[in-house]
Amino acid sequence: MFKTRGLLVSLEGIDGCGKSTQIELLQNKLNQSGISFVSIREPGGTAVGEGIRQVLLQSSYSLTSEAELLLYMAARAELSRQIIIPSLMEGKVVLCDRFTDSTFAYQGYGAGLDLQWIRQLNHKATGGRLPDLTFLLDLSVQEAAARRGDNLDRMEKKNFHYHGRVQRGYLEIARQEPERVVVVDAKVSKEKLCGYIWQKLFPHLRKATKRTGHEF
Ligand SMILES: Nc1ncnc2c1ncn2[C@@H]1O[C@H](COP(=O)(O)OP(=O)(O)O)[C@@H](O)[C@H]1O
Ligand SMILES: [Mg+2]
Question: Is the whole-model pTM more than 0.85?
Answer without folding.
Answer: yes
